[in-house]
Amino acid sequence: MRKLPPDLRAAFDDELAAALEEMLAPLSGKKLQRALSALSGWRDTHPTGTAEQLKDQARRAIARATTEV
What we know:
By secondary structure, the protein is mainly α. It is about 70% helix and about 0% strand. It is built from four helices and no strands. Helix 2 (about 15-25) packs parallel to helix 4 (about 50-65) and helix 3 (about 30-45) packs across helix 4. The chain is globular.
């Protein structure tokens, strides 16, 4: 099941989009919504770097969003 909305998926190359899908897979409900919001905000900053750096940045954005109370 794809959790990454089409507009976000289109913003990233296939490899990064697949990695983001894996990061989102265990999330649901409010945590998923927070993570998607964080990814949208992160994307809007026009991140740059290697594929691994982008994955790490996305992972951190998701972690921050899903651990907030």
